[in-house]
Amino acid sequence: MMGIVLAAGLSLGACTTYDRYGYDNNRDIRDAATGAAVGAAVGAGVGAVVDGLDPLEGAAGGAVIGGIVGAIASDSNPGWYRDERGDCFYVDRSGRRVYDYDRRC
Asked: Domain YMGG-like Gly-zipper spans what residues (predicted)?
């Protein structure tokens, strides 16, 4: 059962889109899916050990908590992108592009 939960969680990480330069534009989704998969695995393990808690219930709770933590942690680290001219930038919290012309991305 835990293998099924892990396979389902990890397959969500493939649902990202890439721009024409090959850079991931949906890092938040990938990080949330990874957090959900790890949370499901840990939750299933806790559910198997704790009396009165089913491993499936633990996996479901762990997936929810792990997905939230993964999405929040993803916001704290800006992703670098390449624009049409090949320059590297990230988007700040105000939605503005911040360029670093010395950086390779």
From this structure: 31-74
DSSP SS3 for 22: coil
Between CA 11 and CA 35 the distance in angstroms is: 12
Number of H helices, E strands in the chain: 3, 3
Which residues share a beta bridge with 98? 90
* 24-79 confidence digits (pLDDT tens): 556 777 888 889 999 999 999 999 998 888 899 999 999 999 988 888 877 555 67
* Cβ pair 64, 37 in contact under 8 A: no
Q: Which helix (H) or strand (E) holds 91?
A: strand 88-91
